[in-house]
């Protein structure tokens, strides 16, 4: 039963369950009322019958004392003829040994050979015989003196006809049952209508909630919002407000995403221009060298190779900028020539500012780190150090390769890096107020190279920057 019921739609299951519960509740209530009335009727009959037998016992007692059996018989027969309001079938008296002494029966009622087994137990009592719709009531007949002497002459018994009462009770039970069924049906239909009305509003809301996944939140049209159900109306209005807020939030997120894309494109363009400018300056320097000393084969070859490496760097920077979301691009190992090129690219700026560059580069012929990114990091740090150093000062660059790590150092004699920028570089979290595109590029490239940076700055005594880069068997590939 649970299986087929669970397969029914919720719009059917809920009203059906409410209707069944209401019907069962009303039917059970009517049955309880009917049973309660029956029990009360039997209790009242028991009390009334004992009062009736009490009066009959007082009439019988003189004849019992005089042992007048004929007098007892007349009293019982005359009592049956009196309109006492009780539908008696028979009256009888039996002695202490259970022997029937006198018996009076209504017309058509056969005489008894013996009493039913349950009749006569105890000083008084009643027994309802539902088979023939009658009630037996008995009570001992004795004076107070007899009771003190523990002598009971006998008991008076009345057999009352309850067929009319039983019929009336059955009719009442049927009436209650029919009224209960009708009432439960009406209440069930009213309950179904009420549940359906509430459920219709909730199903409307559920329908819009189901469409959220596919179409997004859409408000319920005002014409479909129930006006006679305040609570459901408030719920749907709350959903409409949520849908409106969701649309506004999506629109705002879309605008923010567009602004973010524009900002990223602008920053990427600025970064690309910044990174291309340095190797492009080296290419222009090589062209200038060719113009002046192009007749010397050694100078010409060296300038052409330098220009070629600069153009390759520009190509790698452009590729890295176009595919920056994929990670590292360069698969070329770092060589001493890359570090020498960095120095040559920075020498023009150093001569312009009157700064001396000293290097101490002790690295093998091939270091398994990405050459393009290392060149960008070192060139940015070197140019910043040159710009921070006073004329006549010295900027030192050092390089040393260990078994699992490449260590690069840049030392200047400038006024010292700002403390907030020092903390930001050491922690990998630059302050929002810092300026300098080269620093951003260094941080981004170090993240891609999985490297780290250590900065020591002393006010008026310069800045010492150390870059640690892990060395793998092969550089990272895209």
Shape: rod-shaped
Q: How many DSSP-defined strands?
A: 12
Report the uncertain regions.
325-330, 474-478
In CATH terms, what is the architecture of the domain at 9-171? 2-Layer Sandwich
> How many helices?
11
Report the biggest beta sheet as strand number plus sense, adding barrel if it closes.
Answer: 5 strands, antiparallel
What does this protein look like?
This protein has 478 residues and is of the alpha+beta class. Among the domains are: 9-171, PAS domain (Beta-Lactamase), CATH 3.30.450; 330-478, Heat Shock Protein 90 (2-Layer Sandwich), CATH 3.30.565. Helices cover 59% and strands 17% of the residues. The strands form 3 sheets. A 5-stranded antiparallel β-sheet has the order 2-1-5-4-3. The protein is rod-shaped and about 170 Å long. The relative contact order is 0.06.
Explain the layout of strands and helices.
Blueprint: H1 2-7, H2 10-65, H3 69-81, E1 88-95, E2 100-105, E3 124-129, E4 134-141, H4 144-148, E5 154-161, H5 163-215, H6 230-293, H7 297-322, E6 333-334, H8 336-353, E7 356-362, E8 367-370, H9 371-388, E9 394-401, E10 405-411, H10 419-427, H11 437-449, E11 452-458, E12 462-470
Parallel strand pairs: 7-9
Antiparallel strand pairs: 1-2, 1-5, 3-4, 4-5, 6-8, 9-10, 10-12, 11-12
Helix pairs in contact: 2-3, 2-5, 5-6, 6-7, 6-8, 8-9, 9-11
Summarize this structure as a short list of keywords or feature phrases.
478 residues, alpha+beta, Beta-Lactamase, Heat Shock Protein 90, 11 helices, disordered C terminus
């Amino acid at each position: 039963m649970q299986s087929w019921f669970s397969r029914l739609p919720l719009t059917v299951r809920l009203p059906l369950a409410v209707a069944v519960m209401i019907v069962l509740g009303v039917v059970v209530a009517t049955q309880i009322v009917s049973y309660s009335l029956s029990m009360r009727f039997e209790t009242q009959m028991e009390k009334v019958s004992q009062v009736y037998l009490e009066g009959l016992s007082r009439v019988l007692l003189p004849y019992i004392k005089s042992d007048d059996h004929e007098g007892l018989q007349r009293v019982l027969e005359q009592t049956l003829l009196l309109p006492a309001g009780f539908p008696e079938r028979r009256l009888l008296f039996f002695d202490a040994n259970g022997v029937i002494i006198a018996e009076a029966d209504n017309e058509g009622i056969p005489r008894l050979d013996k009493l039913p087994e349950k009749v006569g137990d105890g000083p008084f009592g009643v027994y309802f015989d539902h088979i023939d719709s009658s009630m037996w009531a008995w009570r001992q007949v004795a004076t107070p003196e007899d009771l003190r002497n523990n002598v009971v002459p006998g008991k008076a018994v009345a057999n009352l006809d309850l067929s009319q009462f039983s019929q009336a009770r059955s009719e009442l039970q049927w009436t209650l049952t029919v009224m209960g069924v009708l009432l439960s049906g009406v209440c069930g239909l009213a309950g179904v209508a009420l549940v359906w009305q509430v459920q219709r509003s909730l199903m409307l809301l559920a329908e819009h909630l189901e469409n959220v996944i596919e179409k997004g939140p859409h408000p319920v049209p005002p014409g479909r919002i129930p006006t006679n159900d305040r609570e459901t109306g408030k719920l749907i209005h709350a959903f409409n407000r949520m849908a409106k807020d969701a649309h506004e939030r999506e629109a705002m997120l879309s605008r923010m995403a567009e602004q973010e894309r524009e900002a990223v494109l602008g920053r990427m363009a600025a970064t690309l221009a910044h990174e291309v400018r340095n190797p492009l300056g080296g290419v222009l320097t090589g062209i200038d060298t060719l113009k002046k000393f192009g007749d010397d084969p050694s100078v010409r070859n060296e300038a052409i190779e330098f220009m070629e490496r600069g153009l390759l760097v520009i190509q790698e920077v452009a590729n890295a900028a176009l595919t920056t979301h994929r990670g590292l691009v360069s698969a070329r190992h770092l060589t001493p020539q890359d570090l020498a090129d960095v120095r040559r690219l920075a020498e023009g700026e150093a001569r312009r500012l009157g700064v001396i560059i000293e290097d101490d580069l002790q690295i093998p012929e091939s270091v398994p780190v990405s050459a393009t990114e290392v060149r960008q990091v070192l060139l940015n740090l070197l140019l910043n150090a040159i710009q921070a150093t006073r004329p006549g000062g010295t900027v030192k660059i050092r390089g040393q390769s260990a078994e699992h790590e490449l260590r690069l150092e840049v030392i200047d004699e400038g006024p010292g890096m700002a403390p907030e920028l020092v903390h930001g570089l050491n922690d990998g979290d630059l302050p929002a107020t810092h300026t300098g595109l080269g620093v951003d590029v260094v941080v981004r490239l170090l993240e891609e190279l999985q490297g780290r940076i250590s900065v020591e700055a002393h006010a008026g005594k310069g800045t010492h920057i150390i870059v640690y880069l892990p060395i793998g068997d092969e550089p990272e590939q895209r």
